[in-house]
Design a protein that fits this description.
By secondary structure, the chain is mainly β. The protein is built from six helices and 19 strands. It is globular and about 60 Å long. Its cofactor is Zn(2+).
């Protein structure tokens, strides 16, 4: 009965930078690291366990061979993926398919996701939604390159939270670091990439037909019903409870005691330092620490001054 601490998997990106080192202290393999796949069983980047009897084992292997850790959940694929993204430059404008489209055309889950803004430079913006009223108008605006008319931009700040269901046109802007919780999928359809070129002078592939197929038109308003449960100076903020995942912020100021409410729970430290206590055993937490609390962990306590983003499988699982 102990947490599974996961080893970071780093992804080099054209828009990446060095902030995962300067902010979190990660030892990065290059100066263009855009993503830390903190908890992942996706074949494009599988996390390994860092501690305990399963040390060195990959998460996809644990899901397959040790379902007791996850409450004997159905499904061949571990359903969630947690990332930290460092946008040193603008990401492409993109959209993700839902499960039906992705399974038919890509052979994997669709991609619904959400973002917690870890930090943002003053004035930093995301693209979140679009202004087209019909599919015909969407196609016309994309064809004409009327990006200022089409795309809806939102200025963000540290601590903001956004729900990004499949079908939502979106893009993370330069100068933003986020914690992303998503379905375990790596299917992205690029709508626009600012006409930039890679190191070989080539423009990255766009996916206009697929983007027009899967974009929700007109854009849907994703209203959040955020609630807070105080525990002394600490608190649990509930951001989302969806069919795919439930997402929380654990604000630790002194101590925070929590109980299991799902077959397993994922968590990442986005700020501060502290301790995790499970069954009288203490584990040090630093910025960027990511762990899974398996099914046999019924209660745990957090101590220190820290912010963690936690998630668990949604109700349909």
């Amino acid at each position: 009965m102990e947490p599974l601490f996961m080893e970071a998997v780093f992804q080099e990106k054209i828009w990446g930078g060095n902030s995962l080192h300067s902010v979190f202290g990660f030892d990065l393999p290059s100066e263009k690291i855009g993503e830390d796949w903190a908890i992942s069983a996706h074949p494009h980047g599988v996390s390994k366990v860092q501690n305990g009897p399963f040390k060195g084992q990959k998460l996809d292997q644990l899901w397959r061979d040790h379902q007791e850790l996850f409450g004997n959940q159905e499904g061949d694929v571990f359903p969630l993926l947690v990332k930290i993204l460092d946008a040193a430059d603008d990401l492409s404008v993109q959209v993700h398919p839902d499960d039906n489209y992705a399974l038919k055309h890509e052979g994997e889950f669709g991609k619904t996701e959400c973002w917690y803004i870890i930090d943002a430079k003053p004035g930093a913006q995301i693209i979140y939604g679009h202004n087209a009223k019909t599919r015909e108008e969407l196609a016309q605006m994309i064809e004409a390159g009327r990006w200022d008319d089409l795309l809806h931009k939102v200025t963000v700040k540290k601590g903001d939270f956004f729900y990004v269901p499949s079908g939502t046109i979106h893009g993370i802007g330069k100068g933003i670091m986020i914690l992303e919780t998503q379905q375990s999928s790596d299917t992205t359809y690029r709508v626009y990439d600012y006409d930039r070129k890679d190191d070989q002078g080539n423009r990255r592939e766009l996916h206009i037909r697929q983007s027009e197929d899967v974009t929700t038109v007109p854009a849907r308003e994703n209203t959040l019903n955020i609630s807070e449960n105080k525990q002394g100076s600490s608190a649990v903020i509930t951001y989302l409870q969806t069919e795919f995942f439930n997402v929380y912020e654990w604000q630790v100021h002194g101590f925070l005691k929590l109980k299991k409410q799902a077959p397993y729970t994922l968590a990442t430290v986005t700020e501060g330092y502290g301790k995790l206590i499970v069954e009288d055993k203490t584990y040090e937490l630093t910025m960027g620490s990511s762990f899974i609390l398996p099914n046999d962990v019924e209660n745990w306590e957090l101590q220190g001054e820290a912010t963690l983003i936690a998630s668990e499988p949604g109700k349909h699982l």
